[in-house]
Amino acid sequence: MFNTKPINEVRAIAGNHSGNLVTCSPSALPIYNALEHKAKSGNHWARITVTGLQSLCAGRMHLNNVFIKPATNISYGHDEFFLILPGCKATVEKQSNGQFRVLHIEADLNYGSLQQDAKKPGLWRAKKAEKGWGASYVKNGHIKGKDNRVVAITDSGHPEIKSVLEDSTSHVINAPISDSEIRLNSDGFDMHHTPGDGMIGGMVNARKAAMAERDPSLNESALILAKTMYNARDIKDVRWISVRGGSGVLTQAMQILADQGVTLKKHYVQFSVANNKLK
């Protein structure tokens, strides 16, 4: 469907009119074009990825964001780093003139299908029916646009969405900042899911558990959650409730928003047992 063979062209992808110029190398351009096509076709994760690459024009790489890692330091003034985005890892060169060149892109163009199969981070809508709780994948990553909406940021370690719900529902219902059980049973809640073989932070290694909020393996999920939170910024009284290790994902997402100067007014956050209000 997409032509991903290298071509002899350098393309400016951002910064033509303001900020730092961002160009894409011939080897990276076909993958970027495929991602851009998906983004323009309404693909949520591709929009996040393309926007992340384009944001280099504003010099975002100097911020202490969790999804940026140094790659190499080159003696003649050029620096390379990895930009970790949903379904994508890009190698970027910062040139001595302040411009950026995307050198290489590794991308999984089937990322959206993997999200729908609960094999990649994404948003799900939980609803109670006669046979119990069930969940459906939310393709656009937007929570239900209703005041007082409850959103769970779940732990990993569950092979199926059904088991994620079984582990999380009682925690959400009993959370101090949550809605009443009657309302939740009627309206349901939204759920940011992070897949993985083990619980986030682990249960044995206390040091690892305490460092979960800086765990690079959560970068991808945190960036997707940050976008969901940003899209919900105008909805009143949203309650973001982490379930166990989901606190690491929620903390990283909030740091990403803080680095961008985004404030979620009249939203509430509960980190497992803590109750906080975002001013």
Structure description:
The chain has 279 residues and is of the alpha/beta class. The protein folds into two domains: 99 residues, RelE-like (YaeB-like fold), CATH 3.30.2310.20; 164 residues, no CATH class. 29% of the residues lie in helices and 25% in strands. The protein has eight helices and 13 strands. Strand 1 and strand 2 form a beta hairpin. The longest helix has 14 residues. The chain is elongated.
Question: How would you sum up this structure in a few lines?
Answer:
The chain is α/β, with parallel strands linked by helices. Helices cover 29% and strands 25% of the residues.
Features:
279 residues, alpha/beta, 2 domains, six-stranded mixed β-sheet, 13 strands, elongated, disordered C terminus
